[in-house]
Specification:
Pfam family, one: CHAT
Protein name: CHAT domain-containing protein
Shape: flat
Number of domains: 3
Organism: Pinguiococcus pyrenoidosus
Number of helices: 12
Largest sheet: 9 strands, antiparallel
Distance between the termini: 56 Å
Radius of gyration: 31 Å
């Protein structure tokens, strides 16, 4: 009772005189004892240490040190985590070996009744300890996040004016509410809200008659004291605060270093509110220099999209493979910087065939409408085709099938809402069927399974080379084709070498009895020789090259392929109308 477990971020916050650290000495990580520490300057903090096994004293930056842990020490592993109110560490870890030459510790993590051991770089570990609650002081999180009004439609990501930047300034209270500080006085203005408008020499109350779009600079107001409707430029309006309401002074407007205060008197003739600061001093502050502090639940706080997406090595190859099967010219395949939001939207609107997007899926677990498909661009707004944008297309899609391939859609319960948002958006937009993944899948496995699906759907399993006009005639429904694809996939992955050999024999015009005399390496060389002679023969050449590569892999020699695991094929879902 009265204690809680904490992880120190950064790790050197707990360093004191005589603490042990690790430093690089002659290309090795060695133990060193801290003699003195510089004053806490986050930009450049240094310490004097004595190297244990040499007795040498040296001054080093803490950035060049790593933590020293003994066997059994309680630690936490630093993880990437998009939540702004949950620390990005995995606790419940214990050191189970000394540091190796690469600067790594072996740690054991306990979770779900199981214990897992793996190596972690020392720089990614922080100490855990139990601290009395009375010794803890809350440090506000100053990272900007987004806050939404109560009336926000969580599927509608189009009304961007209703998403406001804010700063989380206190932890959750007993009711689960966070205090946030807005960044502009007019953030979150909505239909029914009050502002102050000047009439003669008096400040009247104006009630907004409609929601306030971001690009609008004129308000439709009902002036309460006059009982009249008026259109007034926003720049002529003032914020409305009531006495006792908590506010903050805008950046650079601090009074004696203080920003937070409470409204203590109404708006005066000069457009200023009286604000009582925390030290009880009172100041007259221009109304537009004040912003709201408000209590909100976590459901109204949205994280900002900022994590980079890893390159998909096989996505471009997949796109060209599918294009070859569908008879699409190489020049019409959008890759890299060509795949801009504007160009993809233009192509989708004009397409009457399959829309295949081999890229990352961008899932927003909080607002389904912000989920989407990652394209080429500099920010979320111009590089993600959102579910809201798809569902709001003016012209219905004419595509019989949309494939969202190689999606990086998140994990756990966060997946469900986002995936449903994407699927729902494309079906609302007019697509007859949508294929997508429910979790992140190896992009090489995705490329292979998509190739098998198209061959099954279009009845091309036994054909060689490019297909011409016949490829656009499906032989069965998308659902039937996907079901058959998975059955074939499992048969193939149960004995991948047999499948590859039989396919290679056919493409090489070789009898099975003749081919079985060749080793894997000999058959791979034969496929590669034929590939060099068939380089201009489209998909046949690509398949020969892929077979040559596969036959050189060791994991095809014995047992099942790794792609037999459900994590590679069970991720995909088909939504059809």
């Amino acid at each position: 009772m009265g204690e809680c477990e904490v992880a120190l971020l950064p790790w050197h916050d707990g360093i004191r005189k005589d603490s042990m650290v690790r430093v690089k000495h002659e290309e090795m990580w060695v133990q060193a004892r801290v003699l003195t520490l510089s004053k806490p300057d986050r930009r450049k903090r240094t310490c004097s240490v004595v190297v244990e096994h040499t007795g040498e004293e040296k001054r080093v930056s803490l950035d060049d040190c790593v933590p020293h842990f003994v066997m059994g020490a309680a630690v936490a592993v630093i993880l990437e985590d998009s939540s702004i109110w949950r620390r990005s560490v995995e606790g419940n870890a214990t050191i189970c070996s000394d540091m190796n030459e690469e600067g790594e510790y072996e740690v054991e993590i306990t979770g779900g009744g199981e214990k897992v051991q793996f190596r972690v770089a020392a720089a990614d570990l922080v100490p855990r300890m139990r601290i009395a609650v009375s010794q803890l002081v809350y440090r506000p999180n100053v990272s900007n996040v987004l806050v939404v009004p109560d009336s926000f439609d969580r599927y509608d990501a189009g009304a961007t004016a209703r998403l406001a930047e804010c700063i989380v300034s206190t932890p959750a209270d007993a009711a689960g509410k966070y205090e946030v500080t807005l960044q502009r006085w007019d953030d979150l203005l909505d239909k029914g809200d009050l502002v102050r408008v000047l009439h003669g020499s008096k400040w009247f109350h104006g009630r907004l008659l409609s929601s306030f779009p971001e690009d609008q600079d004129v308000c439709d107001l009902h002036v309460e004291e006059l009982g009249q409707k008026q259109e007034i430029p926003l720049e002529e309006c003032m914020p409305y605060f009531v006495v006792g309401e908590t506010v903050a002074l805008g950046a650079g407007r601090e009074q004696d270093g203080q920003r937070n205060g409470t409204i203590s008197a109404d708006l005066d003739d000069e457009g200023r509110y009286e604000v009582e600061m925390a030290d009880t001093t009172r100041h007259r502050i221009p109304a537009k220099d004040l912003v709201r502090r408000m209590q909100v639940g976590s459901s109204r706080l949205l994280t900002r999209h900022s994590h980079p997406l890893n390159p998909l090595r096989h996505a471009e190859e997949e796109a060209h493979t599918v294009a070859g099967i569908l008879g699409v010219d190489k020049e019409d395949v959008l890759t890299g910087e060509q795949a801009t939001l504007m160009e993809v939207q233009r192509r989708m609107a004009a397409s009457t065939g399959v829309i295949h997007l081999a890229t990352h899926g961008f899932v927003d677990p909080q607002v389904g409408g912000r989920s989407g498909i990652a394209l080429c661009g500099s920010s979320h707004d111009n590089a993600v085709l959102t579910a809201h944008a798809v569902a709001s297309l003016e012209e219905k899609l004419q595509s019989p099938l949309v494939v969202l391939s190689a999606c990086d859609t998140g994990r756990g319960e966060e997946v469900a809402e986002g995936v449903l948002g994407l699927a729902r958006a494309f079906t609302i937009a007019g697509a007859d069927a949508v294929i997508m993944s429910l979790w992140e899948v190896d992009d090489d496995a995705t490329r292979r399974i998509m190739k098998l699906f198209y061959e099954t759907w279009l009845g091309l399993e036994d054909d060689d080379g490019d297909q011409g006009e016949s490829v656009l005639q499906p032989k069965m429904s998308v659902v039937e084709a996907w079901t058959q694809t998975i059955r074939s996939w499992l048969d193939i992955q149960a004995d991948p070498e047999h499948h590859i050999r039989m396919r290679a024999y056919k493409l090489l015009g070789m009898e099975a009895s003749e081919g079985e005399k060749l080793t894997k390496q000999e058959l791979a060389r034969e496929c590669y020789r034929r590939y060099n002679r068939q380089k201009d023969n489209g998909s046949l050449a690509k398949e020969l090259r892929e077979m040559a590569r596969d036959l050189q892999q060791r994991d095809l020699s014995h047992g099942k392929s790794k792609y037999h695991n459900p994590i590679f094929w069970a991720a995909f879902s088909v939504v059809a109308v």
